[in-house]
Amino acid sequence: MPGENLSRDEARERAALLSVDGYDVSLDVRSAVGDPSGDGPRTFRSVTTVRFRCNEPGASSFADLIAPSVTAVTLNGRDLDPGEIFDGSRILLEDLAAENELVVDAQCAYSRTGEGLHRFVDPEDGEVYLYTQYEPADSRRVFATFEQPDLKAPFRFEVRAPKEWVVWSNGVGERTDGVWRFAETKPIATYITCVVAGPYHHVTDSYERVLEDGTRLEIPLGALCRKGLAPYFDADDVFLVTKQGLDFFHDHFDYPYPFGKYDQAFVPEYNLGAMENPGLVTFREEYIFRGKVTQASYEARANVILHEMAHMWFGDLVTMEWWDDLWLKESFADFMGTFSLVGATRFTDGWITFANRRKAWAYRADQLPSTHPITADIHDLQDAKLNFDGITYAKGASVLKQLVAYVGQDAFLEGARRYFKRHAYGNTRLGDLLSVLAETSGRDMGAWARSWLQTAGVNSLTPQVLLDANGLVSEVSVLQEAPESHPELRPHRVAIGLYRREGNRLVRYARTETDVDGPRTVVPELAGQEAPELVLVNDEDLTYCKIRFDEMSLHTLRAHLGDITDPLARALCWSALWNLTRDALLPARDFIALVLRFAGRESDIGVLQMLHAWAQAALVHYVAPPLRKTGERLVAEEALKELRAAAPGSEHQLAWARFFASVATSASDFDLLQGLLDGTAEIDGLEVDQELRWAFLEPLTAHGHADEAVLAAELARDDTASGKRHQVRCLAARPSAAVKAQAWAQVMESDALSNALVEATIAGFNQPSQRELLAPYAQKYFAAIERIWSERSIQIAMNIVKGLYPSLQDHPDTLVESDIWLAMHASAPPALRRLVLEAWDDLARGLRGQACDARAESA
């Protein structure tokens, strides 16, 4: 893997030397079916012709290619010896002319890791499916390329495939004489080119719109998935959201969708949520729901559809020069995903989900030792891979929401429109966007950017309320704090809400919007109001901060959190309480008590499911160990009570059923789960479909109530790709030393498992109820991870290093072992060290939370 890296300095040097006029890429994937020849990796033929210019004739450079072998290389008509110029990841190009043509004929390897051209065999019917995934730099696994985002070019693809297959790419395709040929693309970056091939189920539709100049825009729409998922594929809903999104972005961007058709492929064993390939967006197929799910799942899918659509402008039409400015696409797409979700679809509460779920991701990432400014310092491709994180996505989107409040929505959108027109099909840096926003808003964007984009860390805002002799508010102020490691105090545009009880409701009776700047800001607009029972300093979630409470407000929440009538305000309070728990300022037992008391009254299904996840995390990582069993029993009892009380057939019932299964602890709990599986028990309205069956089987397996034979029988019932993943996870969850040894060997000592099955095995291996069984693997982990990093692809290595860190060995000895590894491996790849340090920090945070919880017990 280190030999495949590319530094920013190398990329800048190459971009200064070369410009690319176009690619012709010919792939022959007929080898994807049938028995492979030889003992090596299964390969396909890739022939690439690249036309490019060099502004220093006689200079040298290189092209990128990761392939088992290269058959021939021709540069400007000269045959070159592949053995002399190809080192496995780069092709040396010497004595370049002013205008050049490079032809590379290679044997490239199909992937089983989701990187490059991924090959999947469906266990249900034996059919083979292919798709590509490249970001940030895996197109070089499929064709010879200049693999960096600022060397954009038009692409023409042709693909030879089995005759019964259909092939898709970025442009419109047509099959002639057994070859699929695709229309040339606009100039795009290498990482967003795409090919999907196989016997996919395919549904079509179209989108039409009359533009302001009177011309008619027609966009062919397509949606595809594996044949085995066709019975569950609700393409009509996918198309509905797609059309709503296209309407919204055309209304707001004043730049017609620029890439012709719009296909959306739901593909197997996908590492990401989705990828914004223009004209052919790819999604993980888990967004096709095989069983009943809550509206939160449909909302999440719609958000992803719109996020990827926003990329057609932010990222595809206008692309960052280098991965330092990844935020120019991901932060904007994350913000626009929710902005358009609320503005164009049925999911009008999308900002609640954003506040509760997306920002939780950002808060965690921004408090890790590896936190970084939104505009990051990306030295190389390994850095880039790790920076697809909560800061680049969710913090960046949160900051953009703050920016909209700062400059105004009209100025923000007008800035985006000018940005697209000024830089269409080009590459940009931070200053290019700031200049248009300064034009449209009249604001000093440099100062804003320095505070929000170029510094790391999260501020905390705490209210202070003083009352006069008559019990009225004499002064409200907001205290702003920053961690010592990142002391920047930022300007915040916030809404401050005052709440009081009216009967059995907790309602807002006063509100003001103000600018908070510096360590203390007085808010004179609220003077003279009646005394509040709750002060919410980031009401309506305008800024990015950690909300804190004064003692009066915290006391009110302990007694009346469920009485807050506004769902966004309630979600913000829950998020703030979880941050207090993570920061060891609120004992985990108190947070769990609040969940037990008020979660059953939560109307927003997405917030409820987030509370379930947080409560489970509190039990596993933040509750003092002597109190775990009591906490687990109380949570399981409450979950069962809420499950039985939920409206029959409702999504709340489904959410409580899944949560109950995940926290089940007692013999009676497991008897009920078993009864629901075999039909001897029943809860009115609860339909135990196949996905719910697997959800019940995992805890049964992990606690020794279901064995390998039971899982084999269940797989026979659900002999599909999804069923196989579930079975593999459950097999690794069994409470046996021999099982754990086998699972460890399958992941650490072999690369036979695909990316999806590696993830499933790791998930099953890590069971909180099996801490003692897992203890021997802590030292084994530290002994193996540097080897894993050097031998595996970066995606698989990341999954292993993150997934198998011994976080369940939650005692100081594990921190010490981590410290020793970090000290002894100072020269290890920075990306590997970052992952270990992040896991160390999560564990240290958990131990601080446990200590807080223990102090509350002894107090």
Keyword list:
single chain, 859 residues, alpha+beta, eight-stranded mixed β-sheet, five-stranded mixed β-sheet, 28 strands, 43% helix
How would you describe the overall organization of this protein?
The protein is an alpha+beta fold and 859 residues long. A hairpin with a 2-residue loop joins β4 (69-75) and β5. α14 runs antiparallel to α15 (605-622) and α27 (812-824) packs antiparallel against α28. The relative contact order is 0.07.
- Sheet of most strands: 8 strands, mixed
**How much is the radius of gyration in Å?**
28 Å
- Tell me the distance between the termini: 52 Å
Overall strand count: 28
What is the residue-mean pLDDT, rounded to a whole number?
96
Which of globular, elongated, flat, extended, rod-shaped describes the shape? globular
Work out the strand percent: 15-25%
Helix percent band: 40-55%
Tell me the number of helical segments per DSSP (H or I, 4 or more residues long). 28
**Within the largest sheet, what's the order of strands?**
5-4-7-2-1-10-13-12
Poorly predicted runs: none
Quaternary? single chain
Which structural class do the helices and strands define? Answer: alpha+beta
